[in-house]
Amino acid sequence: MFTKIEHGPLMDRVYRHQRHFYDVTRKYYLLGRDPMIAGLNPPERGSILEIGCGTGRNLILAGEAYPKTSLYGIDISNEMLATAHKKIEIAGLGKRAKLAYADAADFNPQALFARRHFDRIFISYAVSMIPQWQLVMHEAVSHLAPHGSLHIVDFGDLADLPSVSRKALYKWLDWYHVTPRNDLFDIAESIALKNNATVQKQRLYRGFAWITTIRRNGM
């Protein structure tokens, strides 16, 4: 049975002030986001959903890269959503983008956006902050259209970094409630097997960042 975790209030506390300078600081270490967006390749008039849309930075870039797509975003932090709404309007994407407050582990896109499926769903540096991250991945795949794909970028196992640097980075991430999911690739394989899907895996920057793609076959 699904047990709801009250993760939203924690995220609001973490980002209440950080959201104002989040994008400026994170660009130096949230590596792999842009290659992940470049690999979305949605249908020309397809739909893109970002789970954990944060400030809207990635959704804006996706909208600019794929100008005829429909954009959707959910987040469990009202603080982040407030910033995302402003940035998306400034970027001129207000008519194409819809945002909603939702728990990624249990959300109803029909109720939120009047649609059941999406051509592309992506999660950028969020599974490392979501306690029920595996459930979130299962939920996301269930909302993919035929031939749709789920794209995830996050911290990798850092295996090829010097041990001192790796330990320091793990400690620093822990301060921000971030836990790299070293079994991300294995879980992606397991989910794909259960959903008639295939998996692609990329290791970037000496294992600092991982990208995995779960692509659903036709049904």
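The above is record 1. Record 2 follows with the same two-line structure.
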Amino acid sequence: MVWTGVGRPHEIVAVPGVVLAPGETLVAIELATVCGSDVHTVEGRRPAPAPLVLGHEYVGRVIDVSDGVRAVDGAPVHVGDRVVWSIMAGCRDCDRCRRGLPQKCRSLLKYGHERIQVHWELTGGFATHAHLRPGTAIVRIGEALRAEVAAPAACGGATAWAALERAEDIVDLDGATMLVLGAGLIGLTACAMATDRGATVVVADPDPSRRALAVRFGAAQVADPTDARGLTAALAATGRPEYDVGLEASGSPRAVRSAIDAVGVGGVVLLVGSVFPTEPLQLDPERLVRGLVTIRGVHNYAPRDLDGAIRWLCEHAGERPFEELVSARYPLTQIDQALAAAASGAAVRVGVDPRDAQRRR
């Protein structure tokens, strides 16, 4: 299903065949989910080179693979493997890839964000199949992990894992107090993962239903960020003296400011949600210097983060209501309705199921 521009419905495009080049893989998609950036694109809030196939959260099964393709764990990828793959493909050889920043590769390709082209039409998740390019991180997941849990891990889940890994470069989460602003997929997943690592987590979100959901994902306390004393009261209720980590997952400038203001001495602020233009913020550099505060931007992730997130979900997803996060599902041919449902914010994630379209082929 091809998006051709703001205000236009998706169009069906048939791809009669795919010829794989060295290092490439063809996957039949089992389920895709709608990320906020997909909504931002169709609303015109995020520039994109139409026509393109949106969607970058997915799970599927390998139906063809070139010789020598290997998963993140080093094992060969075989036809029949059930897999999740990264939202990007890097060259693995430029200076950024060699520095461990493949998500910022000099010749980066991003699934769900690239214009379709001859011999690479299956560029995103809102399709029956995906054509994976060389340099894509592939993680085999077996059969037990539900598709509703596996698909969002390709973006939000792996990004949450990456944020916590970057936090632990500065602060040991075991025994730390962590503030999460935004109870969407990333915030809820980070809450569950951080709680499992021994952190006491406070989740702030203006939506009461999201705050209730955060409790089920392990939050020790929840707060309404529109309440002037909400974050302070929630911290006091934990019995902890200060926030050691602040994770901002909504992109709201007010929430970014709250995260920076909330952390104590030696704290780390993780900015994850600011992936669309907003007004700039003023910072007090003296407060950051004297407080030994670290601010880290986390955008996407490295292959090891996707692998870590999937491994954690395989072991712990059943302890939290991850399956409930995909609370609406649409067939692929109703992708415009799925995007509208996602834009409403009623569901944390909306599923897009291509299997009816696959059966009709």
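The mean pLDDT is 95.
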